[in-house]
Design a protein that fits this description.
224 residues; Cytidine Deaminase, domain 2; 5 strands; 16% strand
């Protein structure tokens, strides 16, 4: 017996049970995580339906976030589709940040940084420059390091903040290890940067650590 092609498997289901149909009729919020991914994949792989492939991705990754950001073993066009959806989400969140006070939308800041930094294999240090109304001017990956550390130079951070004409700044870096806890070096660096920037009247609003799907805020921890 010939195995059905992946894109024909879901077509054998009643129309009202197909994820794409339900997304159109009831809205994408009505779909499960696996169903949402299956809509992006469009077809499955290895003789599986798109939905079964999506379920396998979530099981292998351990979470929806890992399934989408670290998808492996998929044809290039499917990987490109998932990457495009993430980039679209990043741009929507960035646009949202650019049009409002970042302090009034902390969830958007977290989501933007999570999408930007999670899944990186090496540590990176990002500066988000803000104007006097705490609107985003730009974000910049200022330093890139190794799997376990990044060298950050306060002098370069001050120069970059002045170049951007920033009144305030948010720092963020990732922990590829997946542990969203600040090290003693992280705390010392943050204090050093805060002191250096205070000399040029640039306020440090927060420092985020992104690890997997988790985001830790120094401000919330009382570490600023």
């Amino acid at each position: 017996m010939k195995l059905a092609e992946p894109d024909s498997i879901l077509r054998q289901w009643p129309q009202t049970e197909r994820p794409t149909f339900r997304a159109i009729q009831c809205g994408p919020e009505s779909l499960t995580d696996a169903e949402l991914i299956s809509v992006l994949l469009r077809t499955g792989t290895g003789g599986q339906s798109a939905l079964d492939t999506a379920r396998h991705m979530i099981q292998e990754g351990g979470s929806l976030f890992a399934a989408v950001t670290k998808a492996t073993g998929l044809p290039s066009e499917k990987t490109a589709r998932l990457a495009a959806s993430l980039e679209l989400a990043r741009r929507v969140l960035r646009e949202h940040l650019n049009t409002g006070d970042t302090l009034s939308s902390p969830a958007a800041v977290r989501d933007y940084l999570r999408l930007s930094l999670a899944g990186r294999e090496h540590e990176v240090f990002v500066c988000v420059y803000l104007d006097a109304q705490h609107r985003v001017i730009e974000s910049e990956e200022l330093f890139r390091g190794t799997l376990t550390q990044t060298s950050v130079y306060p002098r370069e951070v001050v120069k970059a903040a002045l170049r951007a004409n920033a009144a305030a700044i948010i720092f963020a870096h990732n922990h590829p290890s997946g542990v969203a806890q600040p090290s003693q070096a992280d705390e010392l660096l943050t204090r050093s940067l805060k002191d250096a920037l205070s000399l040029v009247d640039v306020k440090v609003l927060d420092h985020f650590i992104v690890a997997g799907s988790g985001v830790l805020s120094f401000a919330e921890r009382g570490l600023l």
